[in-house]
Amino acid sequence: MVDPHDDELAALGHLNRLEFERTLARWSGAAGAVEERSGVLTWASASDFPVLLNGAAALDPTLPGDAVVREATARFEALGRGFCTPLRDLHPDDEPIRAAAVDAGMVALSGAPEMAVVERVEERAAGDGVELRWLDGGSAAAPGSAAEAADFVAVSDAAYQSLGMPAGTLHTAVAAPHLIDTPGTTVVVATVDGTPAGAAMALLSHGIAGVYFVGTLEAARGRGIGDLVTRAVTNRAFDEGARAVTLQASQMGEAIYARMGYRELFRYTTYVRFPPA
C-alpha cells in the first residue's frame, strides 16, 4: 500500500514527470529543445501549444521564485510562445514559484493528483474484439512497429481534445515518431475489431515508472479500455524493474485509477503564461 507521506516516492514521481517533459521535446526531433542552465529546466516541442508541450521547472530549489519565472519567461519570449509550469501544491520548493507566477500574471489552468502504486495491479481480460498491441514488440502475436507509434500519436491526439488540446497538436509535436520506441519507454495501443481505440505509455526513470497519455477515443468510451491499457503498462513497468509506478490523473480518470489501487501522494497545479496576442 502506498504511504501518502512517502516523501522520497513523491520526489521520484516529480523527477519522472520532468523526464517525461524532456522526452516530449525529444520526440520533436530537431524541432525540439531541452535547456538546463541557471538552475532552470525548459522544454520546447515542435508545437507552440503552451500546456504540457512547452514548459519550465526549477532544478535548483534554492533559486528565488521570481528568478525561475523571469528565466523561463525570457526563454519563451525569445521563441514567441507561451509556456506552463507544473507546481506541487504546498511544496516548500514550489510555493515561492507559485507566488511569483501569480505576480507575473500566469493563470492556474488545471489541477491533478499525483498517484502511485507500489505493486502490480489486478489484471483484467480484454473484452470481445479488443486486442493490445505493444510498440516494443512485447506481444508475439502483434509485434510492435512504426504503425503502433503512428496509432499511439493518433489516438492520443484525438483523445486529448476532450481535455482542451486542439486537434493536430500532438501530430505536430511528435515530429520524430521513430524516437518513441526507445529503451525505458513502453507504449500499448488497444484496438477494437482491428481499429485503434485507446493507448497508454509508461516511462522508466529514477528507479520508478510514470504512466502517461492514457486515452480512449470518444466513440470507444464506456468499454473499460482506459482501465485496460493503464493496468497493462503499469504491470509491464513492474516487470521491467520499477519499484513503484506513478501518474497524474485527469478528473475523468482519477476514480478509475483509485479503483485499481493508485493512491494520491500530492497534487499539482499547472500555471500557464499564454503567448503574446
Helical element count? 7
Look at the structure and give the CATH class of the largest domain: Alpha Beta
Structural class of the secondary elements? Answer: alpha+beta
How big a fraction of the residues is strand?
Answer: 25-35%
Mean pLDDT: 94
Give the CATH H-level superfamily of the largest domain: Gcn5-related N-acetyltransferase (GNAT)
Give the proportion of residues in helices: 25-40%
- Alpha-carbon distance between the two ends: 48 Å
Number of strands: 11
Q: How would you spell out the order of helices and strands?
A: HEEEHEHEEHHEEEHEHE
Tally of structural domains: 2
Report Rg. 18 Å
**Unreliable spans:** 137-143
CATH architecture of the largest domain: 3-Layer(aba) Sandwich
Q: How are the strands of the largest sheet arranged?
A: 4-11-5-10-9-8-7-6
Shape summary: globular
And the CATH topology of the largest domain? Answer: Aminopeptidase
Tell me about the largest β-sheet: 8 strands, mixed
What does this structure look like?
This protein is an alpha+beta fold and 277 residues long. The protein has 2 domains: 7-114 and 267-273, no CATH class; 117-265, Aminopeptidase (3-Layer(aba) Sandwich). Helix content is 31%, strand content 29%. The chain has an 8-stranded mixed beta sheet, with helices on both faces. Strands 1-2-3 form a 3-stranded antiparallel beta sheet, sandwiched between helices. Helix 6 (225-239) links the parallel strand 9 and strand 10 (245-248). Helix 2 (65-79) packs across helix 3. The longest helix is centred in the N-terminal third of the chain and has 20 residues, at 7-26. It starts with 6 loop residues before the first helix and ends with a strand. Residues 137-143 have low confidence and may be disordered.
